[in-house]
Amino acid sequence: MAALLQVLKESGMRIGEASALKWTDIDGERGIILVNTPEKSNEPRAFKISSKLSSMLNLLPKTHEKVFGKLTSRTARNALAFSRKKAAFKLQNPRLLQIHFHTLRHWKATMEYHKTKDILHMMKTLGHKNIQTTLVYTQLVDFEGDEYHSATASTVEEARKLIETGFVYVCSHEGIMLFRKRK
Q1: Which phi and psi angles does 47 have, rounded to 5°?
Q2: Which of 109, 153, 155, 176 has its Cα between 20 and 30 A from that of 89?
Q3: What 8-state DSSP symbol labels residue 65?
């Protein structure tokens, strides 16, 4: 499940496209996954994958032609629903129940658009033929409007306490360490 989720996160593929992946669609040397069986009349496409995902895929058993064996979209959804329900109960976070495989596709679109500001790149990444379809997936989130609490530390002990409470180190200036965390 972890490898499947990582594939979806890094590529923005649909669950049906990921479950159809074959070992021949993965070029481990160049770190590329090919989507040769796109869904919904989308375009075939290729994705660069991280070394983390490459390692995860290399650990999977190669006993079947497909990367995820006989996994179907339906069995994958059922497995995710079970894991999601268990995590939501354990963490007392009902919002986890709202996460679906397709959520990762929307996340990928939003993050890629935030990085590139290029809607045509997004259209190609998602495999769409129509820009109107891409606009549905790309949530135009204003990342610049995030507000932060800031704090300073002049000793290692003060810095440690800030990090333990969720602050993130930003930089140092004249011997003072600057930290921030979202409000």
Answers
A1: -130, 140
A2: 109
A3: S
pTM across the whole model: 0.70
Q: Is 136 helix (H, G, I), strand (E, B) or coil?
A: helix
The span from the CA of 92 to the CA of 109, in Å, is: 28
Q: Which two tokens stand for residue 70?
A: 């006989």
**Contact partners, residue 167, CB within 8 Å, separation at least 6:** 149, 151, 179, 180, 181
> Residue 171, SS3?
strand
**Residue 167 CA neighbour count, 13 Å, CB half:** 19
- Cβ atoms within 10 Å of 179's Cβ, excluding its own: 21
CA–CA dist 46, 61 (Å, integer): 23
Tell me if residue 22 falls in helix, strand or coil.
strand
Sheet holding 168-173, edge to edge: 148-153, 176-182, 168-173
CATH superfamily entry for domain 2-97: Intergrase catalytic core (1.10.443.10)
- 145 pLDDT above the threshold of 80: no
pLDDT digits (tens, 9 = 90+) for 129-138: 888 888 887 6
The answer to whether 16 touches 39, Cβ cutoff 8 Å, is yes
- Rg of the chain over CA atoms, in angstroms? 20
Cα within 13 Å of Cα(116), Cβ side: 15
C-beta of residue 80 within 8 angstroms of C-beta of residue 39: no
